[in-house]
Amino acid sequence: MILYKYFPCNEYTLKSLAVRGLWCHTFDNMNDPFECLNALEREYDPIDLKLFRNIIANGNIQKWKKIAKLNDKELTKVINLSRKEEISKRAFCSLSEDPNDILMWSHYANNHAGIVVGFEFHELENNHHLQKVQYQDNLNDFDLEKFAYFQIGALDDFMNDIFQDYSIKSTHWEYEKEWRIWRKNPCYYRFDPEQIKELYFGVRTDFETKAIVIQLMNYLSDSVICEQKSLRHDPIRIE
């Protein structure tokens, strides 16, 4: 599976190519205020709150034992705050299935003056650190039972659920065909040069930028596809 990273032409892109890493940042630095929709304030069914309360009350963590004594309104506030704290520590990098989207070249690649790099990922990597974004008009129910067990340390493998929940976006963004690389905190996702299979320059990428990028990426294999995109019509497109 090839996934594509859109890069603008700036110092951060050059640094990324030089250190062979994709920077993963927190959701509050994104351009969409609805990013990570499951971080929004939510209401919970009283039955689910009762189950959550019973689980944390029977755990071994004193903090949560005290929280179990709160009323439903106060407990809801604590749960929402805990969810926000959990995701605020995490970081991700966005990629796309499509290297030819006109809007993404405009938004994320310097108005077609940047580059797009295609990275190969294997199916075995499609786990909690690599998530396909789900585009929906409504949020899924949040699993309070699992979240309760996770908070008291009785469930280790909940990160996959968390990253899935936070990889939901509005259907308005569906054209991006996004995937996300998740990390525990802001850092570089270090890629193997062998993962790079394609390199594309935008229709407005100048000679100097191409020369610098090629020099920085001298670690690329000779088999890597390297092309400059061009405009086509009937239908209007990039290829």
TrEMBL record:
InterPro entries in the record: DUF2971 (IPR021352)
What's the protein here called? DUF2971 family protein
- Provenance organism: Marinifilum flexuosum
